[in-house]
Amino acid sequence: MTEIKDAPVRDETATPPAIELVGVVKEYHSHGETVRAVKGLDLAIGEGEFFSLLGPSGCGKTTTMRMIAGFEEPTAGEVYLHGRKVTGVPAHRRDVNMVFQSYALFPHMSVFENVAFGLRRKKVERAEIVRRVGEMLEIVDLLGRERRRPTQLSGGQQQRVALARALVNRPRALLLDEPLGALDLKLRQQMQVELKRIQREVGVTFVYVTHDQGEALTMSDRIAVMNDGVIEQLGSPRDVYEHPASKFVAGFIGTSNLLSGRVGEISGGRAVIALGDGERIVVPLREGITVAGGHQVELTVRPEKITIGAQPPPGDGSAIRGTVTEVVYLGTSTNYQVTTSTGAEVVVFTQNATSAEDIAARGDSVWLSWDPRHSYLIGATP
After folding, report:
1. pLDDT, tens digit, for every residue of 352-363?
2. Which domain holds residue 312?
3. What function does this protein fulfil (predicted)?
């Protein structure tokens, strides 16, 4: 049996968040084995926040959401909604609603009746139902389509009906499990903007589960990047993208170049990796990682932060040589794949705003340079 540690002490005097998980563990038992899907999760989601659980399949994000909703119970730890412990409370008695990828609309009912379904079950008066359904259909931009059936709507319109049905009951939190997964790319991108607008208008806490980094970056106030049952990084979209806390986060969020080298000197709060013949990588030293001369370090730099040119760059920033191995034209940008003098594979994104010509061709020798502020250490060993 896997040992489960006691949950941390919770501050009962502080203003409670909308959703709080304290030391939450979820284990499953199959064929004599214990699988720990969620491993001691501590998490607080603020009132009115758009919060995303992001990660690959099997990382524990949907299990975490299902424990918040009450469809699963934690093996250990506690779940709180607005300061009230709901561990063991059935799903229908929790003041949250959930929207699934399948939408689960009633095909024989009109848009109006689908949205009004929960209010009718609560025996709300008819005049109040008409008013609240009308308000919600206006928010999701479906006024005039009240009498249509779900089969007469587009995928994006069906998704908005499911949202309206979930929100019309005025839950204090809405849980969304990959609700855009069934839509095509263009519609999915449009709905990302719509979802954020709707969340802002209704002011309800949204918890959004997705494996799509673009969705999370577009809509979220904060993102929890999950991997193997734990949160690897928690922060704003900009912080998670610009300053990944681990190799996993760097590789999972966007495209990132992973480089390594041995520190030659520490100077002015920066570590310098000298590669010889004018080549160097300069990394600012930030909190959390201790580095000394001679340490082997790993760092990341985003492709759009790198400048590619034929001559060595001036100044004392990062500069390494390489050979272009591939050029891919993408309309608004061009991607260059470069093999550096140390054998590392680096990707560079350049915007096609000022020139219709490629900066370099396949086989060209080039210099790659970037501001040291855009290098970010993710690991160091003696």
Report:
1. 877 667 789 999
2. 255-286+294-377
3. Part of the ABC transporter complex PotABCD involved in spermidine/putrescine import. Responsible for energy coupling to the transport system.
The predicted model scores a pTM of 0.86
Nearest 5 degrees, angle CA 280-CA 255-CA 37? 120
Say yes or no: 313 and 332 in one domain. yes
Q: Determine the Cα–Cα distance for residues 181 and 179; give it in Å rounded to an integer.
A: 6
User: Which residues 6+ apart lie within 8 Å of 186 measured at CB?
Assistant: none
Q: Is 240 found in the same domain as 345? A: no
d(CA 65, CA 54): 11
For 179-204, the pLDDT digits (tens) are: 887 778 888 888 888 889 889 988 99
Q: Which pLDDT does position 41 carry in this prediction?
A: 96
- Secondary structure of residue 172 in the 3-state scheme: coil
**Nearest CA-CA partner of 283 in 302, 303, 263:** 263
Q: Are 288 and 298 in contact (CB under 8 A)?
A: no
Together in a domain, 245 and 268: no
pLDDT in tens, 89-145: 999 899 999 888 777 889 999 999 999 998 998 899 999 999 999 999 998 889 999
Same domain? For 66 and 80 the reply is yes
